[in-house]
């Protein structure tokens, strides 16, 4: 079983990212909750909040055992007949106070499941950026970081995984992307196990390094009440995606995970009302979303 190896590696990733996020806000405090899963395993959930830069962040680790893999984990895979499984993952979300600093998300996961008498495994994960105000140079920095990561392993990874990300993080009912994208991969097992593991861990490292650089660049910028209101308004899109389309949310609920941890990714404050005229802000943002997908 490879799950023991992944458990150690992913636990370390969680701690590294917790430490890095706390460095983004010297006023931040963390609240850690350990929980157990009904069928076996459990997790460690960490919520981070501060009064300067980090309004809310969540860095969660889970490693659970189940008898039947939820349909959300098998969607569009064509996999059938999977029974007993181990699912281990780390998920991260950061909601800044400053609307000039973007929201960001990371997830890495590892599945091990039994098919008949055979055990199979695969990795998945990725990261994406959901800004409210962003420049072309910052958008390109984010995309180039992802491309550099992918090119270390396979020249074809970036185009494929960036396209996956663009298709996945899209709100059909709004007919708009959730953000500027990043990478998204699943069922990664066609390379050597150590290579797949290295790529997944490198994905987490690239995320926190790139995001920290963007965050530190933006966190002290001045902003207006109108810009803050626009941030809260656009956070509504994030909530809509997570509740309507996110497979991670569905998997957590379908597999009997801790509800509070599953929904910890939600922003602390959100608004669907337009207290101001946001047309100029929205046009610029959607233009950048479209540019990121070219």
Chain-wise SSE layout:
Elements: H1 3-23, E1 29-36, E2 41-49, E3 54-66, E4 82-96, E5 103-115, E6 118-130, H2 136-151, H3 157-168, E7 170-171, E8 176-177, E9 181-188, H4 193-218, H5 225-244, H6 247-254, H7 259-262, H8 279-292
Antiparallel strand pairs: 1-2, 2-3, 3-4, 4-5, 5-6, 6-9, 7-8
Helix pairs in contact: 1-4, 2-3, 2-4
CATH class: Alpha Beta
Let me know the average pLDDT: 93
The termini sit apart by 41 Å
Helix content: 40-55%
Assembly type: single chain
- Biggest sheet details: 7 strands, antiparallel
Radius of gyration: 19 Å
Q: How are the strands ordered across the major sheet?
A: 1-2-3-4-5-6-9
Low-confidence stretches: none
Shape: globular
Approximate strand percentage: 25-35%
In total, how many beta strands? Answer: 9
Number of domains: 1
Gross CATH architecture: 3-Layer(aba) Sandwich
Name the CATH superfamily assignment.
Answer: Coproporphyrinogen III oxidase, aerobic
Q: Can you describe what's shown?
A:
With 294 residues, the protein is of the alpha+beta class. The chain has one domain (3-292): oxygen-dependent coproporphyrinogen oxidase (3-Layer(aba) Sandwich), CATH 3.40.1500.10. The chain contains eight helices and nine strands.
